[in-house]
Amino acid sequence: MATAVARLAEAGCDTPRLDAELLLADALGVDRAQLFLRDRDADPPPGFAERLGRRAAREPVAYITGSRGFRRIELQVDRRVLIPRPDTETLVEAALELPHRARVHDVGTGSGAVALALKDERPDLAVSASDASPDAVAVARENAARLGLDVPVEHARGLPPGEYDLVVANLPYVREDEWDGLAPEIRLYEPREALVAGADGLDAIRELIAAAPGRTAVALEHAPDQAAAIRALLHEARTLQDLSGRDRVTSGTVR
Ligand SMILES: C[S@@+](CC[C@H](N)C(=O)[O-])C[C@H]1O[C@@H](n2cnc3c(N)ncnc32)[C@H](O)[C@@H]1O
C-alpha cells in the first residue's frame, strides 16, 4: 500500500492514501471500512495494478470504480456523464421543502443525481428529468431503473414543455477561459459540454431562463461569483450557500 500511495502522490493526486484505499477496496469487492481486517502484507488482488495505473494517469476514482455516492443514493457513473459533486447537494436541499406532491423537473440531469436523490428523499414529489445529451439520458435512465425510482428522463435541450412547480438545474457554468486551468481529472476525462458555457459561463443558464414560461420557479446552481448576475435575471431571487459557505444556488421566478 505504501508504494501505491507514493505512486499516486508522485502523479499529483491530492488524496493519494484515500484513493489507493478506495481502489484496493474496489478490487477486493469490499467496503473501504473492511480494509482494516485485511493482512497488511497480503499481495495486492488482481485488478489493483490496473486501477492504480488509471488513477496515476489522473482518471477520477469514480470513473474507475464506476460509482459515486450522492446524498443517500449510489449512482453509477462513467465518462458519458459528469461525476456528481458534493456542492450540488445544495440544489437538492432547495427543493426538499416543496409542498406535498409538487411537480419538479431537473434540467441537465447528467447521471440523474439531483432528480433521483430528490425522489429518494421525497417519494411524494412528481420528479422528472431531461438532458441535451443522449448519453446522459441513457445513464440517468439506467440509474433510475437500478435504484427503483420512478423518474421519467427525456432527451431535450432546455426545459421540456410541461407544468412544473419548480425547475432545478445544474447546467454547465464554467467560463471558456477557465478550461485550460482545470485539474487533469476534469479536463482529460469529464465531458466538456457538461461543464463549459461560453465566455462568462452563463450561456446555458441564460438560454434556460429566456425560454421558460413567465413565473416559472427555478433553482439554479452556479459558481460563487455568478450569484449576482443570476439574481439580476430573476424575480424575487435569493441565494443559498453550499457546505463551504459559498454562494451556490439561486432560486427565484422567471420574469
Ligand atoms: C454540470 S452537468 C450536471 C449534471 C448533473 N445535473 C449533476 O449535477 O451531476 C450539466 C449537464 O447539463 C447538460 N446540458 C448542457 N446544456 C444543456 C441544455 N442546454 N439543456 C439541457 N441539458 C444541457 C449536459 O449534458 C450535462 O449532463
Q: What's the arrangement of secondary structure elements?
A:
Layout: H1 2-10, H2 16-28, H3 48-56, H4 61-65, E1 67-70, E2 73-76, H5 89-93, E3 103-107, H6 113-121, E4 126-131, H7 134-147, E5 153-155, E6 166-169, H8 184-187, H9 203-211, E7 217-221, H10 227-233, E8 234-241, E9 247-254
Parallel strand pairs: 3-4, 3-6, 4-5, 6-7
Antiparallel strand pairs: 1-2, 7-9, 8-9
Helix pairs in contact: 1-2, 2-3
Bound molecules: S-adenosylmethionine (SAM).
S-adenosylmethionine binds near residues 158 and 170.
Describe the structure.
Helix 1 packs across helix 2. It is globular, with a radius of gyration of 19 Å. The protein is α/β, with parallel strands linked by helices and 255 residues long. It has 10 helices and 9 strands. The strands form 2 sheets. It has a 7-stranded mixed sheet, sandwiched between helices. It has a two-stranded antiparallel ribbon with strand order 1-2. It is 33% helix and 18% strand. A hairpin with a 2-residue loop joins strand 1 and strand 2. The longest helix is centred in the middle third of the chain and has 14 residues. The protein binds S-adenosylmethionine (SAM). S-adenosylmethionine binds next to helix 6 and helix 9.
